Structures are given as structure tokens and as C-alpha cells.
Amino acid sequence: MKIPLSCALAVVTFVALGCVGEPVTPMKRELCSNGVDDNDDGKADCLDPTCFTTPGCMRLPEDCGNQVDDDRNGFTDCDDVACQASSACLRLEVCDNGLDDNADGKIDCADPDCRARPRCGDGGPEASSLCGDEVDNDDDGAFDCADPECLGQACGAGCACTDGGVKGEANCGDAQDNDGDTKVDCLDSECEGQGCGTGCACHGGLRGEGTCDDGFDNDADTRADCADADCANQSCGVGCTCLQARATETSCTDGLDNDHDNLLDCADPDCGTRSCGAGCECRALARFETACTDGSDNDADARSDCADPDCVTAACGAGCVCANLAKRETACTDGLDNDGDGKTDCFDGPDCDGTTCGAGCTCSGGAKHETSCVDRADNDADGLRDCADVLDCVGPSNLCGNGTLETGAALCADGLDNDNDGDRDCEDPGCDAQACGTGCVCRNQRQAETLCTGGGDEDHDGLADCLDSDCVGTAPETNCTDGLDDNCNGQIDCADTNTTCGTCSALLIGKPCNAGAQCASGTCRTELGSGWPSGACVGALNGCLLDAGVSTGCPAGSACTVDGEGRFCRQQCSGATGCRTSYGCQENLDWEGPNTCVPLCNTDADCNRLGGSYGCNPWSRHCEAKDKNLAKYGAPCSGNAACESGVCLPDRGGSCGGACRRGGACAPDGVCANDGTNDGVARCFDVCTTAAECTRGSPYQCQPPPWGGTTTNVCYCSRTGERCNVAADCCNASPLPFVPTCTFNICTF
């Protein structure tokens, strides 16, 4: 087949011109500087042979010292194989400069290149005799003292290798700089404390006295031994120490004159109060016994323990003291023979004579003796008590009689044990039912109160009248108009169901009662129904009016009052007086009007003696259960029924308060203080020590109450009409519309 001439020319010239009538495909060409393999031959730019002759890709020979990759093969200077024979790249190890010169990881003599070089050894051990030859004998890269094997070894005359790997001065008295640091002997810090010759030691860079008991001036400073300040507190021989520039004896038990002053041990003033052995102490230039219980003659004076005068007044054991060169018993109630003489406690006379042997007992004459003859106790344990112990308790001075039979009012109240049987007056069964004085009778071998209305403590038990259990319920109520609890059952006059008074009826308001039928008003606030002590006649509920302080609808002697218990007529009073003993006269702050009597019991004796938990509740001052487990003082409340006291003050949403008798007491968590009135009733406040204890928060503050009566701090905020400094002190500061003001230091709303 014939090829067209145009196609043949295209083949010869390698130019893709194409043949006539055929498409032309151009050849790819490398651009040599764009970082791309343009002709797809796997080589980019100057690495492509087509670029070798371009100006930018022409190669230069590698210069082995200019830090440039001259031939562009990726390797620079000595890292390029073209530089292997260059003198600039031939590295040699210097064998004594401590550096890895040829970068093969081996230094100086440890590098094989240094074998047989000067200062490098044969690889054998660095022998102790070779630590100063300036040769790395074991070829480990460390010379002499720098080699750990040379630690402590000699590095020349007067020289030794230190733990710092350097030479150190070893001879501090040869006047040579042995370690080559330009410092000689004691001037070299390595010589501190080291010997600098016979009896010489280096101190503070100077020669100092090293031996303090040889009689020589070893450091040539004209002072020898302890006279040299270098010897201060240093030994000057066995049992001798240099103190205050002289030899001082410090061993006081060896029988030697250790400081050579011709005085031995305790006879030497140096021994002062030093020990002279076990149980021995030097005192007043002599040996002194200090251990007085070990059975040893510690001070070698042929006398031991209490037999040695040194032990006078010293303890010789528990309950024992040395006295008069012998042991003496001092504990006379422990049942022990403390001084080892075979006699115990009071039986050890005269040691224990005059000492107590217990309550109402004294040791005397080697025996116990009763000294309290009125306590009904056998104090000396001889089987006889009080006046029955006729050896110890005799005569009127001990309230003992002459043997007369104990009977009759005269002998049962004279304070004497007349028949000396150990029972005095009412204690003696012979006096039972006999009078023991006015208002007193002997009952069950004790005095019993029979006069229960006179206010006196006739049986001397600390309780008077109805507070004394002797008086409770002993007889019917015989007088129903005297306002007294004559039979001490907690019920007064007509309130007592056990009476001989006849019929109680038409009683006036305020009189004791137990039923409405007894009252002229037909209404009785009974104790069991309302908690009012012994009940009280009152007007009918809502049967009166109180308008602008004016009471209407109540009979004479009574007034209309409104409070948490309702609106009705009550007994009227004046100031702080005019009420029964278990009631208080109170001014009506909220509704104004006359003062009236309110329940205010004092003790359980004011209430029906029902027993158990029933009595005078200290929070409410009513006769009821004494703790109903309701909210106490200061606690939040929503109404009177929520409070133990029955009083919920409208302070900041409600706070439990309480009433008390002016000058009296509240329950344990409160204190009684004035409330700004002049009546007989005061207010109980919640006691506090810090504001944090006032659980209601601001404006309650922990401060003294505003109206006085106590200095104890209480949780308090001012109510309407009470004192204030600023409006924030007032209880009802929010919410609106009750916006308070503090006007003339009084809270208003």
C-alpha cells in the first residue's frame, strides 16, 4: 500500500500535522516550572529529561559546604553522596573534649576512633591507683574523678575524688593545694571539720582546736583546750564538756574527777541537779534520794526510801506519803493497807486519825466514829445509826435524849431522839398520829401538813398548802365563798363537787363554777370545757356590746370583752388587781374598754388534780393537757387553734405568742416581758441569740423587747401602736394596701 506523501512527511518530522482529511491530535509538552507532570511520563519539571537543557533546570555540581542542594537531588552538602570524598565531610572524633564530634553516639575514648590515642586506655578497669593519671583507662568517656569508679579514691597526694565527680582536698594540714582549686588546707571548704594536724581541726576556713583535752594549743592561737572558743560544747574527755571556756563535769555517777578540779561527781558544783544514777539526783553538792518506792538505797547513804530523810513528804505509793522516816497512810477510805503495816484505813492509827472516812464519819483512835447523828445513816458501819450509836452520838448536842419513850405531842416535836433508838420525833413509830406542831401531824414515820390554807410550810418539806401532797383531797370543801381551795383538790368553792356548802346558785360573774345552772347569768366557762381554772361565771356569748370602749349589756362588776375566746361579759378589774389568784387583770388593747379577768394559772395546784399529763399548760396558762404538741412561741400560724398558747398574733401572716403574769415566767422556750400596758398581764416572746434563729425572717429582729421587763434578746417586730425606728421595723410591712409608717416612733397602717 502506498502512503501519501503528506503523511510520510508528518512521520519524518514527528509533527502531528495529520493527513489530509484526518483529525489532528497535538503532542503534550512539559512546562518545567509548574510542579505538574504535564506530559504524563511520571517526571515533573526539572526531573523530566525534556527540561534538562532549560536555563532553570540546568544542574550544577554539589558544593559541600554552602548548605544548598546545588545539584537538586534532594540532598545537601555532606548528606549528598557526591560529597563523600570531600575533605569538608571527613569527620574525626576529638578524644578529650567531652563531645561526640563525629555524631556516632560515642564520646571521646568510648569512640573506637580514639583507640590508642593519647589519654585513652586499653579498656581495662579504672583502678583506684589510676584515678589521678589523666587517662580514661576503661574507655567509658570519663576521666579520673569524673568516672564513678573513682569516687572516694586518691587522685594524687592529699587529693581524693568527691561525690561531685571532681577532685577534693584530702590532706588539710600539709600547706598544699592538693586538688588544684587554688585553695590551701582549711581555706578549702572541703576541709571544714577535718583535721589539720595533731589536735587541730578546720573551722570556718581557719585552723581550729580539734583536741580539747591534751593541754596543747593545737591551732597556734595562744589558747589551749577549753580556753579556746573552738572547743565550746566539745568533749574534753570522758564525762567532760567544754562549757563557758572551762572544763565542766557532766558525768556525775562514775566516781571520777572528769574535769580535773579535784571534785568528784555530786561534790562538783558542775553537777548541780544532774542525775547521779537511778533514783538519785545531785543537790547541794551531795547525792539525794528521789525514788522513794523502789526499795533501793539510791544515794548510797545506807538508807532507802522513806527511811531516808531525803524522802520526807514524798509519795511512797497510792495513798501513802513518807513522814518521820516511815511510811504513812493518807488514803483512809479505799479499803487498802497503803503503807504496808498490816492496818487498813481508820484502823491504821495514828496515821488516819482526824481524817474523814466518809459522810458523817471520822477516823479516831484507830477506828471509825459516827459524827453525823441526825442523817438516819450508819455512817461508821457499826450496825448502829444516829443516837442508837451510843458510843459516838450522846447528849442534846447530838440531838439525842436520855432514853425516855418517844410518845406524845411534846416529845414528838422537840427535835430529839428521846429513846435513842435512831428514830427522831415523827421518824419514831411511837409518834404516829401524834401532833408535831401547829398544822402538823406524824404520819407514816414522817411529818404531814394538816393546815393547808395558812401559807405556811408546817411539815418543813419545802411545800406549802395545796402545793404539798399532804393537803390534796383530805376533806370536803367546807367554805364556798372564801375563794380558797380548802381541800386542795384544785377546785375552788362552788367549782368543787365535793362540798358541804349546800346549794351553789345565782353566782355572780367571775365566781368559780362547774355548771351554768350555778350562775345568775346561766353561763359557766367550766375548767374541763374551756380550761378556765375552777371555771368562772360569764355572760352569754354575744350577749353584750363593746362600742368605742363603752361596755353595755353587762351586770355591775362585769364588762363586755372581745378576744379570741368570743364576746361576752366577764369579771371587771382595775390595773393589775381585782382577780382570783389563777386569773390576771388584762387591758383590752385591740377593742379598748375596761380591764377584765382572764385565765392565767400559775401551777398544777390551780387545776383539778386529775393526774397524768393534765395540769397548768405553761404556754396557754389554761388547765388542760400540759403539752398538746402544737406550734410554740415564734412559729408561723394561721389561727389561734394552731398554737399551743391559743394565741396567734397577726404578725406577717401569723406568729404564735402567749400571755404571762407580769414579772412571772413563760414556757421554757420563751421569756416574759412587758407589752406596753399597766395591767397584770405581760407577753411571752420567743427567745433568741442571733437573728438566724428568728425563723420568720425580716422584719423580725433578735433584740431586747421594746417595752422592757427583761434584757434577754427575743424575736420581735412591732405591731400597730408599738415602738419603731423605721417603717421596716413594723410587722405588717406588706402586702399592699397595708403600707406601714413609723410616725413619732409608733407603727401605724
Polypeptide structure, described:
This protein is mostly beta strands. It has three helices and 39 strands. A three-stranded antiparallel β-sheet has the order 1-2-3, with no helix packed on it. The protein has a three-stranded antiparallel β-sheet with strand order 4-5-6, with no helix packed on it. Strand 29 (614-616) and strand 30 form a beta hairpin. The longest helix is centred in the N-terminal third of the chain and has 9 residues, at 5-13.
Terminal CA distance: 131 Å
What proportion strand? 15-25%
User: Helix content range of the residues, please?
Assistant: under 10%
Adjacency order of strands in the biggest sheet: 1-2-3
Write down the overall geometry.
flat
Oligomer: single chain
Please tell me how large the radius of gyration is.
59 Å
Low-confidence runs of at least 5 consecutive residues: 1-22
- E-strand count: 39
